[in-house]
Batch of 2 targets.
Target 1
Amino acid sequence: MRDAQALPALPDATHDPALLSWVPDANRHADFPIQNLPFGIFTPPGQDVPRGGVAIGASILDLAAAHHAGLFTGAAEIAAAAASREELNAFLALGATPRRALRTRLSAILAAGSRDQHTAERCLHPAADCTLRLPARIGGYTDFYVGIHHATNVGRVFRPDNPLLPNYKYVPIGYHGRASSVRASGTRVRRPKGQLKVPDAEAPRFAPCERLDYELELGIWIGPGNALGTPVPMGEAEHHVAGYCLLNDWSARDIQAWEYQPLGPFLSKNFGSTISAWIVTPEALAPFRMPQPARPEGDPPPLPYLLDEADQCQGALGVVLEALILTADMRKKGLPPYRLSRSNTCHMYWTVAQMVAHHTSGGCDLNPGDLLGSGTISAPEPGGFGSLLEITRGGKDPVALPSGETRRFLEDGDEIILRARAERQGAASIGFGECRARILPAA
Amino acid sequence: MRDAQALPALPDATHDPALLSWVPDANRHADFPIQNLPFGIFTPPGQDVPRGGVAIGASILDLAAAHHAGLFTGAAEIAAAAASREELNAFLALGATPRRALRTRLSAILAAGSRDQHTAERCLHPAADCTLRLPARIGGYTDFYVGIHHATNVGRVFRPDNPLLPNYKYVPIGYHGRASSVRASGTRVRRPKGQLKVPDAEAPRFAPCERLDYELELGIWIGPGNALGTPVPMGEAEHHVAGYCLLNDWSARDIQAWEYQPLGPFLSKNFGSTISAWIVTPEALAPFRMPQPARPEGDPPPLPYLLDEADQCQGALGVVLEALILTADMRKKGLPPYRLSRSNTCHMYWTVAQMVAHHTSGGCDLNPGDLLGSGTISAPEPGGFGSLLEITRGGKDPVALPSGETRRFLEDGDEIILRARAERQGAASIGFGECRARILPAA
């Protein structure tokens, strides 16, 4: 624990851990106390039209209704109007200033003692009665590979002699994923069929994936973005980050091993990806920023286009990430989900700003609602590995579950639940909401 | 030349080579005679709102205006209404039946002797005065690698001992490209900067690409598409193809060589891709279908999910593809573009139907307006190579141009022009229009 006197100051009053909300359960809520205020798209019970909302405790504040009720003025009103639509792309495009104004105003509306309580109460829905949607239309989805312990662990399985390739410490490695198959938490994922080839087989066969895996990742929502041909320099990169989520990059390891050379993963990933439905803002996570961990002795410094003093000082994030499993048998026996992985975003070798600057460094455009994935974030120690490929060493060491079952890879009916928690001394801890999905049998 | 009696019959009267149009120049037009009728999005002179149009000779028929003038009924009217909007996604989503009805009706309207000539004349614009746009909002862009001679040639540069990897003849290799940076013909392309590392350098440096290349590809526009989790079987795959274009998949070879392991090309491709602006329909290309070329002796047959009798019989396309260069010096000297590559779509190892079936085989969804690229299509012989990487053997053998210049890779001010021509005895030949763009210096 850091000494209390050495704690960095909280960014503003919206983070005050003493701040309480009048919304029932908000002050006891692990993920969504008043210090969080994440944005999402939901459909209230009995209604068809999705609209923007803010999670507060076990409730959702309907932004369209609150806007209509006249609760916002100025920059906050502009942001609330943009966030009232059927998707949050226009809101993400606004950038930090209106988003901050809206946060400040929402904090005041929802704080205990607010004179707007009576009006706002009529805009609240119990979250349990609502359906959560994808928060934005995802134009482009790029998955990075910045979890260095994951890259090392996986590299060891695919390339035992050469786990970490020579470019890894120079290039924030990434590739284009499939945006169309990203779904919000709760949508079931069908096990893919594909070409499987065991090393000693003469030819591949087409069959349901036998090595289905999860990947524990941080998702990054892009805000304003850049024009084609106009790179975003490091010093401006954070301006284009509109928020964060959890991302489960489901992976068919057997399909991947056979298909991925020379152009990378394709069908092994594009059958589906799951994200948590709430966009946790950079403002909410501001107290959990930290210096970029020192590179190990002997690692090269980032090239100048990826180097920025402010980013070195506070470009990393300290957020605990967890992956849990709940099998059909565990559900039947009433057992709670079992934790497979506990990691932390501080294990990213490259910061989010470096990912944005690199992505645009050749001129590629990023646009509001684009999604970046961090790649699997594993902690260095066992118990911290973010995928079964790593935990079971490619299926060699099955993991034992409290139900008496074992898992090398995922089975039909298994549910994977990702959770995140940001906490530090002197600040209210916040979470991301669940990123959860269950595996359906192959068609 | 095939014997005239053995020529396959033309699909319908819209292909009759004797059919003439009343539109000036249409009957002499290399690309857009009345037998073609491709769809696109254009802005007429002095107007702001893009709308759908059909290329006929050197003119564009304004579909919104023609629809408004009452020229369509029934299924053709449904298609014309969908094609009148600012992007063709809704039209692509309709599938073949309304598209065919619209083609039949357009052929009648534009045919010499049509009683609708007077009405339709008022809906024509000179193409030279119009601005062509991207024909659809591209949701997802996937680039394949089905040009087997290209895969072999390139494999030899990157992996001399192992040019064609073991999966190539089983898997239609593809990867997700960047949809946001695809632009219509005519938009200039800025040379990217990126990490370059020559093999004997200790570290990479960040600098303008020194090995900028083009790639000669066929583009495929997706029509109706499929729901996530519901693969498209081979027998239905063609139903989801709404048309074709030319695609220049600009490639930064030096960036690519350093970044592409282990997750594939990223910044080496996503700075920009150029497509021809007209969607040439499957109907227009029907006379140029051909049997899938026999696989070389010893090659494995496609796995059952990629095998279909009709596809074997007529799933391939015979379209001549060309890439030409025009340098700043050639422009100054008034020299015509110089042909670098002359290839043919018959050199695709996998058919378009196989690409669609494979893409969806694990459950991934395709959607109206998605774009597939074939990958570079090289012919086996020199003169048929579809990229400078192949032509100059990785820069070793510069190509001599009529201006007295040489090129290992592209220089600033160079323009690459892709063209396509479908021709066979007994049918009117058609083209795709140009896919052209000029290289701007790095920023």
Target 2
Amino acid sequence: MSGGAGRMSGVRDVCVVGLGLIGGSVLRAAAAAGRVVWGATASAADADAARADGFDVVDTAEAVRRARERDALVVVAVPLPAVEDVLRVVPDGVRLTDVVSVKGPVAELVARVAPGARYVGGHPMAGTSASGWQAGTAELFRGAAWVVTAEDGTDLDVLSDVLELALATGAHVVPTTAGEHDAAVARISHLPHVLAAVLASVGADGGPLALALAAGSFGEGTRVAGSRPELVRAMCEGNRSALLDAVDDALGRLGAARGSLASTGGLAKTIEAGHAARRALVDQQAAELTDLTVDLTSPQALEALRALGSRGGRIVGLNGSTALARTS
Amino acid sequence: MSGGAGRMSGVRDVCVVGLGLIGGSVLRAAAAAGRVVWGATASAADADAARADGFDVVDTAEAVRRARERDALVVVAVPLPAVEDVLRVVPDGVRLTDVVSVKGPVAELVARVAPGARYVGGHPMAGTSASGWQAGTAELFRGAAWVVTAEDGTDLDVLSDVLELALATGAHVVPTTAGEHDAAVARISHLPHVLAAVLASVGADGGPLALALAAGSFGEGTRVAGSRPELVRAMCEGNRSALLDAVDDALGRLGAARGSLASTGGLAKTIEAGHAARRALVDQQAAELTDLTVDLTSPQALEALRALGSRGGRIVGLNGSTALARTS
């Protein structure tokens, strides 16, 4: 790998733009891992709180200028609608990643607004229903999946930076493409929010009697409908195209269940397919894993990383330029 | 109230037909509450296991004959498809309730097959994913809602029997009609199973990558898809008509979300309605309750009971012929 000036494995400086729950947790976790860190945020409250906790917070233009100067990794941790403004001040050649929950739209923005940046997309699959600097912790990412995009042409040196940072926070890394990430999270993260909202509404339409009888299945199936609506909307609406596909799949399957129940009275296909699918989830989570390695200097590295992700595998360590992975 | 021979509050004998998870738990809980109990079951395994635990298990015809003789309460605790065979041997005049998860179809069967029985429908909203005698416990109903049907013409003396039994097991009682019960559970119990199956299938269609990224919302939203398919089918298919209405509501709401996302890119209405609905659930569960009483000898008793249920209220005690209730 062609390391930047002063590059030593595991010690690249980290600049985080956006100091809410996720960005604030990245800043803390990177500092806890021994990195030199600084941050920037448009929120005066978050800036004051981060400074009060001893962190170096400067304005965004100064933060990214310093990052270019020190060849640091910039982590964009603002909501999707605010990403473009940050990208406008990013210098050419800067090492850049992000933690936004949708990857295709961010990649498009980077290509349009900051084409000179050395960008690799990221998405740590962690969060709580709280928000803001105060809600963050250095431990937020421990055990979580952190998606890293590995497109044809991706800068493997920056990808290694993101990998090191993610591993340093205690996450494991799932490599994939922006498109596959967006399709997957539409199915397993955004559709669950839409269905929870629909279920909650249909239940509440049953009035106080229905709610008085609600037990486990309704409580669990609607819990995420209690999340802040503006956050859920930003997440779901930001992944519009992939979410439409997932909603169409759900509509098709629910319509088929309706048709079968109305015509034959049976729900065998729906219930049995759902049971098999749930078992696939449980089996995959319980599967014995085997170790494998990916040589990040190989010409097939990006292809190997994507293959690992599509098999449900993950990177759990880095030894020089060799990624240590586990897969079922 | 016109009590039966030997009637003393709280000491009516109990005969349970069907000794699986629910029936076996009713038998144990009634015995633990000091009642004379006996049971019957078509399952030799459940019969042997119940006898081994010291319970009196006889054949079904003998069990219900003895119930008529002693003016006991018969509790039908077999799956819906087996209810008709039990009803065929029920003597005229017997005090009869059931614990089947759907009430309209059972009431229709009773009217057709055992019109001479003094029937009041019941449904304890409790269960686990396990089944059979061995899975039952005397504590299964503690804190659970136990629905009791209060139709025009319902025998208030038998309703009081069911109420006493339910309260003796530690449950609270929600009075309503068979139709309202079936509509409510379609929304808060059966639809959640159908949506969980749909969500699990759409997620698994995303392959190992999607399942590797699945976190809280998908795990929770699909958990009940892990229940035994034959039990879920029996429950959902048994409530076909009401479930069709609930599925149609869900299809309408999901279709509206799809249309809005496709046309304007927005999900405000869906997500905000879902959030308000979830809040209604949480608020109702956290609401301060006020006490009220229902005089079961009053000509308006059935109406008062139904009104209590539609307000989300419940009966928590019985003092002679006065039901002690709580409502928000």
